[in-house]
Amino acid sequence: MPRAEETTLELDLVALEHNYNYLKSKLHPSTRLLAVVKAFAYGSDSVIIAKKLEELDVDYLAVAYAREGMVLRESGIKTPILVLHPQPANYLMVIKYCMEPSLYSPRVLTEFLNVAKTEKQKGYPVHLKFNTGLNRLGFCENDIDYIAEALENSKELKIKSLFSHLAASEDMSEKSFSNDQIKSFIKIARDFTAKLGVSPFLHILNTSGILNYPEAQFQMVRSGIGLYGYGNEARFDAELLPVATLKTIISQIHHIEPNESVGYNRAFKSEGHQKTATLPLGHADGIGRQYGNGKASVIVNGKKAPIIGNVCMDMIMIDISNIECTEGDEVIVFGKGHSAETFAAGANTISYEILSGISQRVKRVILGG
Description:
alpha/beta; TIM Barrel; Lyase, Ornithine Decarboxylase, Chain A, domain 1; 2 domains; eight-stranded parallel sheet; elongated
């Protein structure tokens, strides 16, 4: 591994392939895998990640918004792209770049159908999302009659899949709720087929669903966080490899006298003689203020060093009183050897947030590409 000379986010494509193969090993041979590459591929690099996944013959990609998909298409990605939360203002973009929208309410179905008619589309692929308990986006079961009426005698759209989203697939204390969601989804699919006379493929499982509810694979599953190395549970994390490792360096070392303060608002005050290091990254890079004041630690020469004081826009300070190190030494913020889940837990948040929040000004370094 190259040693960092500045703040960098290393992206390990060998780790990505390992995670992809691990998740595929949990599936029936006929089950499709959709890879979620929204939010810059969970804070990494959506184009680099999508190209690697395309090499691996992934069946589908998913983004949150149309502009994310546009970037992939303009970078040469040919794999089908599901847009999970398209806005009507971008429906023309969806069609122009041959993306497949999730339609989740009577309003958006009507509006997309009207655009498809205006653009003289025939059999344009769309996906219908149903709400089974997450209460975020989705048609309700009672909307099936509306959908049937709206699409009667319409040749503009083709319903490619029906899908839903589990609310707590990683929490086995909510297994009963998750199973109820799955049962509700099965009933919706049966009613839909009976009313419309079509049988789209089905998908409801996310990463934790793949690992905890293999009986509900249907025809496709979706994975986001698992591809990037996190399984939401220690036993699965042990089987996965972090794709992203955030590294930086020590810019300066300070020797602090007793009762001296460090950083803005004097948030940290020394109790004795201490040694601190300043690192060149901060909340503008995605390390929010919630990680300061001892809530999170980084790794310096194999040892934990807590963040002290308030996180600044471009700098954080750490306590290195008991660590042998020098200016210019490498620091691991999170990744291999110090997971994003561990880093995030101190601030009472989750790996998704710290990963997806890494600023685009942080240099990306590709390994194994």
